[in-house]
Amino acid sequence: MNRTSATLMLQTIMVLMEKQNTTDVTHYPSTFYEEEIERCYEPYGCFSKAYPWTEHRPDNNFPISPEALGVRFAVFTRRNRKIPVLLQAKDEEKIRNANIDPRGPFYFITHGFLDGGHKVWIQNIADALLNLEGNDAATVTIVDWRRGSQPPYGQAVANIRLVGVITAHLMHAFYKELNLPNLNNFHFIGHSLGSHLAGYCGHELQKKFNLKLGRITGMDPAAPYFSNTVTLVRLDRSDAEYVDIIHSNAMPLYFSGFGMTESIGHVDFYPNGGSTQPGCKNEGSAYQGGGDMYQSIVKYVACNHERSHDFFVESIAPTCPFMAIQCSSYEAFLDGNCTTCDNKHLCIPMGFHSHNVYKRLQMGGLVDTNSNVALYAQTGSAKPYCRVHFEVKLKVSNSTESQVHGPDIGKVMITLIDRNNNKSDHKFLSEEQKYYRPGDVETKLIAFKDTGHPPLSVKVEWKYEANILIPMTWRLLKSSSLYIEYIKISSIEYNTDITVCPKLRKPVVANLPTIMKTKYCIHN
């Protein structure tokens, strides 16, 4: 099965899931009974099926009952990492006696469709938060609503409304029983449908208890049934003091997209453009038959959607700054139009540590909490994902030797070398062969693995492939080579610039690595 077939099968399965709501049901005339518009579950309130819950939705359901949902809250601290304290929203006395440190911070983590609180990625986030330096008083609560996250999708969408309200009641119980002044150090982290669940929780806290959640992190908020809806229906920045979003699969469902495209938080991160992620193309391979076909297909197409929580867990204790840069678009970002952190191009680390930087920008009057900041970053294709960004500017020499040699076609590959002789990974300026003419200037934004220090020199390689159909690639009497005048490397994260040149203006010959240094520019 190729990727197109997998996508078509996923669409078919989604349609079948929706059909489950209507099969084997007797269809009475509309006058036979008056349709139920509102259903109430005490003490959690009433849930309407009227507008806006009908907008952009092929079906509309009530949440199933709290008893059927069976939401479980598993509470972990540094004192009980392995065996959680299991709580219910109404367990006020148990909350009082659960040995929860009122200093906080308090983290809540929840999953999305087809998932449950037992997933490894949830435990990874919980462990990373508890291991974080200075978090000795932290409490992590996993919101497990696995009974309500099963197909059909439309029912799971309805269920998160009630799960969000139930979680708000638990947070209020924490607030009351622990004598907390506010919920500023409460952070709700949700993936996919769980992102909107967190939004419902934040909304309920304000509406019923006059409390505002400190922070919500939405990891690739689900798009089906939520795109282009009013803010009441989906997560938005009014649901908490600070809302940050990581988009990793922001594209239509018919292209195997599950995540939202819209910028809905105070800060929205679009790593690698926010739609597809490096390393996901071959993830899961094609379905080979046997086992649960639905789960296999979902795994095949869901890699991009799940990468958002991979990014977040790494961002808690990152291997490098995990910086993202404000820009008008991802294309403009890649073209090197946003390579300096300034008032027009804000720089904020993606994920966990974004809030501290945002608060500093807010104090400086550089961000408005009523508006959105969209930022872009590049990552690696495998763990660790964090990369550092460099603007690379290459100028082809216009010297006599370069002009006599004439234009050549190939690819330039560079490796950065720091003061300890540590080398980055190798990167091409362009993935395709291109013409380099005397006097040409090429500028690219490239992300490298962090060596721990800014670069001091650059290894340059010229990759050349002759093509019998392209006369300009014919080099019969001498080797293909490129005369480079200089390469300028500007670091976003380190805020440094270096310019390196070839020794004695010598060309970079095909398949012969050349080390370029700053001191060689003096002789040019």
Explain the overall architecture.
The longest helix is centred in the N-terminal third of the chain and has 25 residues, at 153-177. It is built from 11 helices and 24 strands. Helices cover 24% and strands 24% of the residues. It is of the alpha+beta class and 524 residues long. Helix 1 (3-19) crosses helix 7 (293-301) and helix 4 packs parallel to helix 8 (303-316). It has an 11-stranded mixed β-sheet with strand order 4-3-6-5-7-8-9-10-13-11-12, sandwiched between helices.
How would you concisely characterize the structure shown here?
With 524 residues, the chain is of the alpha+beta class.
Strand order of the largest sheet: 4-3-6-5-7-8-9-10-13-11-12
Helix content: 10-25%
- N-C termini distance: 57 Å
- The unreliable regions are 1-9, 15-33, 284-291
List keywords for this structure.
single chain; 524 residues; Rossmann fold; Lipoxygenase-1; eleven-stranded mixed sheet; five-stranded antiparallel sheet; 24 strands; 24% helix; disordered N terminus; Lipase_N; triacylglycerol lipase activity; Lipase
